[in-house]
Write a structure and sequence with these properties.
Helix 2 links the parallel strand 1 (about 55) and strand 2. By secondary structure, the protein is of the alpha/beta class. Helix 3 packs across helix 4. Helices cover about 30% and strands about 10% of the residues. A 7-stranded mixed β-sheet has the order 2-1-3-4-7-6-5, sandwiched between helices.
């Protein structure tokens, strides 16, 4: 009788373990706006304790049901800088911290499954273009309240008059688009500026001296900001949980993704790339320790 119970428990444990393996999806690459056939690092299948996930979201252009005039599917704004910036960033995590990570990202969806809960840190790029439906906003809220962490980056400006017209002749207010979806995620929770003294700026590096990290447009224009006058000042903002922990880290009027992407280009200044990496390391360590 005792032996049968042991066998039953062992079988149950095996079933649970196999279920966990099925629940965690393997690494997969997707078509992107900027890159195709980007080299995959040799450790892409390595089992590690952590990796940074990239959020795949529907957007104002109609992704996943938007197409170019030639019939090709629009990959979505979520793919900006992907996967080059991800691979460079994760190589930096391996060099600069003791976090056990592979060198490839994980793309995740708010698809109603439990997959997203396998990945503690999400990155959302170009969130001035996201358009979350109510069910996805609800799952993102659940993810964050369970202890997840979302870092958003690469959106600019705040006034419609500062933006170039879209192909539809309308103006795109990136801050408003961002907050429209965020208000579905957290109705009533305020967006706050992060003070210099906050632990997120002091977990690994002391980052009181922060400045605007420009995107790749600096190569052509020499200008660090985007989207007109309201894009000139970088903002370090957040949404906190009831205990004061930062759940959403908002990098507004800066482009850390481009800094990671172009960190190996001698034309991109070291001071910008260095700050972008230090911000990321602080944010990841903060999430793991708070």
């Amino acid at each position: 009788m005792r032996l049968r119970n042991v066998v039953l428990l062992a079988s149950l444990g095996l079933v649970c373990f196999l279920g966990m393996l099925r629940a965690q999806k393997p690494f997969k690459e997707y078509p992107a706006i900027e890159y195709n056939d980007f080299p995959v690092p040799s450790d892409w299948e390595q089992k590690t304790e952590w990796t940074r996930a990239r959020l795949r979201y529907p957007d104002v252009a109609g992704f996943p049901n938007a197409y170019y005039r030639d019939g090709r599917q629009f990959p979505g704004y979520w793919t900006m800088d992907y996967p080059r910036s991800d691979r460079h960033l994760l190589a930096g995590v391996r060099r600069l911290t003791r976090i056990d990570t592979r060198s490839v990202e994980q793309v995740v969806d708010l698809d109603g499954t439990d997959e997203i809960y396998n990945w503690p840190v999400l990155y959302g790029v170009e969130v001035g273009h996201w358009k979350l439906p109510a069910d996805q906003a609800a799952q993102l809220r659940e993810y964050l309240l369970r202890g997840g962490f979302l870092m958003v980056d690469d959106f600019h400006g705040s006034n419609a008059a500062d933006h170039a017209a879209t192909s539809q002749g309308e103006y795109l207010n990136e801050w408003q688009n961002f907050t429209d979806s965020l208000s579905l995620v957290f109705p009533g929770r305020p967006i706050q500026d992060i003070p210099d003294s906050d632990p997120i700026f002091h977990t690994l590096y002391d980052l009181e001296d922060r400045f605007q990290v420009p995107g790749a447009q600096i190569f052509e224009t020499g200008i660090t900001y985007e989207k007109g006058p309201t894009g000139k000042v970088p903002h370090w903002r957040c949404v906190r949980d009831d205990k004061g922990r930062i759940m959403v880290a908002i990098c507004h009027n800066m482009d850390l993704g481009d800094a990671w992407e172009w960190s190996d280009d001698p034309k991109y200044q070291e001071k910008w790339a260095s700050l972008a990496y230090r911000i990321a390391m602080n944010y990841f360590i903060y999430d793991l320790s708070h």
